[in-house]
Amino acid sequence: MNFQTLYAKDKKLVLLDQTVLPDKLAYNEYTDYRDVIPAIQRLEVRGAPAIGIAAAYAMALGVQAATDTGVDQLRQTMIEIGKEIKDARPTAVNLAWAVDRVLEVAAGYNGDSADEYRQIFWNEGDAILKEDQEMCEAMGRYGAEQLPDKCTILTHCNAGALATGGIGTALAVIYKAVEMGKDIKVFADETRPLLQGARLTCWELMENGVDVTLITDNMAGYTMSLGKIDAVVTGADRITKNGDVANKIGTYSVAVLAQKHGIPFYVAAPESTFDKFIESGKDIPIEQRAPEEVTEGFGRRTAPNGTKVFSPAFDITPHELVTAYFTDTGVRPGGRQA
Ligand code: MRU
User: Fold this and answer.
1) What is the pLDDT of residue 2?
2) Gap from CA of 235 to ligand 1 centroid (Å)
3) Residue 16 has pLDDT above 90, yes or no
4) Could you tell me if the CB of 236 is within 6 A of ligand 1?
5) What is the per-residue pLDDT across 163-219, written as a single tens digit (0 to 9) for each?
6) 172 in contact with ligand 1, CB cutoff 6 A
């Protein structure tokens, strides 16, 4: 990769600004966690694993700037800051998971040095980033092994390096398959309304020399009916105990279409995306986005003033539509029968 989605440097968080891609490759530096929250909300950093890592580093920024002198006061402050950060976006479980993880590790600190206590947050952010990179590699390898030597994959949204600290989830499978010498072509759904497929997936696949063809979301069914798609691979924002998958709005439609056409539907996700507490998809909170993203998304009004809009950012794909899950620990069967 000739870009890095996010990293920490000199006690700052650096984010690749995904709102300006593919026009510009720009990085923004953050020193205040209160600025990271709106950056997550406006999708400057996005994708479930990446917002988890950003949340961990936002905690580090929070503890760094906190003026409390003693460790006990800092602990209280961090619990409050953690609540604010967790509220940034509700659907991807990685965000709350990362906040809880850094708080838990910091809770184990028995000393009385505020500096040592602060450093724990930076170290844990680094650890989560490094683990994410390793998980992407492992998941990519497991998934790639499942693909035929020559195949065309449809993907939805962006589940690539831009969505993680490493080489991605769904796109990691593609990168690894190419690395193994397989002949892989990709169709990318545009992914309305914010065009993560067009702006981000096409950009990063092209940067990495992968053959990608863009389609609008409503072209997926016809493209499948022409026999042009051999497999679908998407990422996930949260996977419940029964295997239901929350992912970018439109994923469910693609899964239904894949079943109709007898095309395998795979979900690639690290262990941090599996929610061990929620039974099924109906309990996952679905983020609602601003109507303007639909009616005037990229600076031009495309619906009459005052048009009513329903804009869920994610949908639920029931486990019965999933062929298999590619995880960093191996391949798990899904609930789809054929
Ligand atoms: O709203 P976004 O762009 O954060 O949505 C991202 C997705 O839905 C991805 O598919 C998901 O987070 C998996 S990323 C590895």
Assistant:
1) 87
2) 7
3) yes
4) yes
5) 999 999 999 999 999 999 999 999 999 999 999 999 999 999 999 999 999 999 999
6) no
Catalytic residues: 237
Ligand 1 pocket check for 5: Cβ under 6 Å: no
What is the tens place of the pLDDT at every residue in 20-75? 999 999 999 999 999 999 999 999 999 999 999 999 999 999 999 998 779 999 99
Same domain, 97 and 175: no
Cβ–ligand 1 contact at 169 (below 6 Å): yes
Nearest atom (ligand 1) to Cα of 46 = 4
Q: What is the CATH number of the domain that holds 13?
A: 1.20.120.420
Residues 308 and 247 occupy one common structural domain? yes
Cα separation, 71 vs 57, whole angstroms: 19
Neighbouring-strand partners of residue 7: 14
Residue to mutate, 237, 272, 315, 327, ligand 1, most ligand atoms under 8 Å from C-beta = 237
Q: 12 CA to middle of ligand 1, Å? A: 24
Overall pTM surpassing 0.90 (yes/no): yes
Residue 74 burial by Cβ neighbours in a 10 Å radius (0-12, 13-18, 19+): buried
Q: Which of 118, 125, 13, 12 is nearest to 74 (CA)?
A: 118
* Domain shared by 201 and 310, yes or no: yes
How far is Cα 22 from Cα 19, in angstroms, rounded to an integer?
A: 9
Give me the mean pLDDT over the 134-147 stretch. 98
Q: Do 235 and 151 share a structural domain? A: yes
Strands 211-215 and 183-189: parallel
